[in-house]
Amino acid sequence: MKCSICKKNISFYHQRHSGLNFCKECFVKYIKKKVRKTLGKNIIKQNMTIGMGLSGGKDSLVMAYILNEFYKPIPNSNIIALIVDEGIEGFRKDGVNMAIKFCEEYDIAYKIATFKEYIGYDLDELVKIAKDKNLTMNPCSFCGVIRRKILNKMALNEKCNYLAIGHNLDDMAQAIMMNYIEGDVKKLAILGHDANNPMFVKRIKPLKYIPENEVLLFADLLEIKYHKAPCPYSSMSYRAEISDIIDKLEENHPGTKYSIVSGFEKLLEYLPVEKEMNVCKYCNEPSASEICKVCMFLEKLGILNV
Ligand code: SF4
Ligand code: ZN
Ligand code: ZN
């Protein structure tokens, strides 16, 4: 089968929802173009510092690879990798090492922070404390909020204009569906609108329109070495359940993931924007409510230091 774009080369990938066939070169160009369009000229320009959350997984490294290509030639702009070590035995160290290797190979500056130095506990320790107290808490629910807070702090320290997160189309569709199903309109609004607060670095998601399978293809085509092992806690997550359902829908109805995300983006204009953010009364960091989610969680575990 010939490539639908250049009409010359043999295609290697059939995109089901569009019916297009891509050769390797056209596919790589297509992904980069799509990411460029997602970010736009207001973000890819001079005098920008972009912090990138790097886990060492395929999404964050593909994002870093593309952003590095976009920003390297732009004068007075730079990117910096922000790596968070949650402290997950037998898993995270490998990811961190892959992220560091990647940064060294592509000459990207990086900073590392750990849960331990930031809140005094590893994720594994937090999970154990919750278990000992018979609290049924999903590790992902608190891992995510703590990491988010640390990344924001790192991005502020580095004076970043934006914080780039490697969420792909699948991640977006899952997050949207989870909030729909839980009926959590506030969380839906937060997912789509960034809070307007100088203490909160605006987040960008360069891969939000690229499905996971295409991120994977891109990484393999460009021989990007990424951390493949899944997090030991990931199968326990509600997200994993939602992901299976969405994958099934996509299989039977190609384009479902796009329509979940584009429908949500249309809905966004009707969702309330948080005008001002409060400051958490314990840690003084930006928070949608009086107490931020991290402090709330630490309080529940009985380990909040105030
Ligand atoms: Fe954290 Fe869950 Fe991701 Fe593991 S899968 S790193 S626990 S958010
Ligand atoms: Zn082609
Ligand atoms: Zn707090």
From TrEMBL:
Start and end residues of each tRNA(Ile)-lysidine/2-thiocytidine synthase N-terminal domain: 51-228
Entry binding sites for ATP: G53, L54, S55, D59, V84, G166, D171
2-thiouridine synthetase TtuA-like N-terminal LIM domain sequence ranges: 2-28
Gene Ontology CC: cytosolic tRNA wobble base thiouridylase complex
Binding-site positions, Zn(2+) 1: C3, C6, C23, C26
Top-level taxon of origin: Archaea
Keywords tagged on the record: ATP-binding, Metal-binding, Nucleotide-binding, Transferase, Zinc
Positions that bind Zn(2+) 2: C280, C283, C292, C295
GO biological process: tRNA wobble position uridine thiolation
Molecular function GO terms recorded: ATP binding; metal ion binding; transferase activity; tRNA binding
Coiled-coil annotated residue ranges, if any: none
PANTHER family membership: ATPASES OF THE PP SUPERFAMILY-RELATED, CYTOPLASMIC TRNA 2-THIOLATION PROTEIN 1
Name of the protein: Uncharacterized protein
Species per Swiss-Prot/TrEMBL record: Methanothermococcus okinawensis (strain DSM 14208 / JCM 11175 / IH1)
